[in-house]
Every structure is written in structure tokens, then in C-alpha cells.
Amino acid sequence: MSELIEWSRRNSIALVFGMPEERRPLVISPQADSDAVRRCMDLAYATEQEAKAISARLTSAHEVLRAAGRYGGGLVPFGYKKAPHASGVGWILAPDPETVTVSSRS
Question: 31, 32, 63, 99: which has the highest count of C-beta atoms within 10 A?
Fold first, then answer.
């Protein structure tokens, strides 16, 4: 964020950030005071921390699903298809009869 702010100052460009919880956007002009820049940096830090927390939750959830033999979603690898889990909850990856012969030829 600091590099973006510095770039905007060098190029005389205002940065405008939408703020859904407020009525007005956050505007960082090339002449912005240190309070506005600090607020922008604080928001960037909070956003980075939230992204790390979301990533950790997703990684943990996928580990739990793999340990239970379940498929967590995403692209299905070639040679497999999504099938219902035996428990009736969630999905597993099962060999795809249409492509299994293609993938085992090599």
C-alpha cells in the first residue's frame, strides 16, 4: 500500500477506495495528510490479516475433509468424477469410467 501511495504522489493521481460501511469513499489525494495515509495503511493491514485468517480457515477445513475421505471442491482431476460420499454428506472423488482407460494407457 505504501508503494501504491508513493506512486500516486509521484504521478499526481488520487486513490479512491470504496468504503461499504461509510457513506463516502476514502480518497487519498497526492497532497493527503499523514492522518489519511495512516488510515489507509491501517485498513490495508486489517485486510491483509483477514485474508490470512480466511486462508488458514480454508486450509484447516480442507485438511479435515481429506482426513474424513471427502472432497473439498475445486477442479476435478482428469480421470475422476465427483460422487456422493458414503455417509450421504458431501462428496468424494471416484474414478471416471469414461476416462479411466485414457489415463491408464501411459
Answer: 32
Separation of alpha carbons 68 and 59, rounded Å:
14
Q: Taking the model in full, what pTM does it have?
A: 0.61
User: Do 33 and 46 lie in a common domain?
Assistant: yes
Q: What are 84-103's pLDDT values in tens digits?
A: 998 888 899 999 988 877 75
Residue 35 to residue 59: CA distance in whole angstroms: 36
Judgement on whether residues 83 and 55 belong to the same structural domain of the protein: no
Contact 37, 20 (CB under 8 A): no
Percent of the chain with pLDDT over 90: 54
93 CB-near residues (< 8 Å, 6+ apart): 71, 76, 77, 80, 81, 82, 83
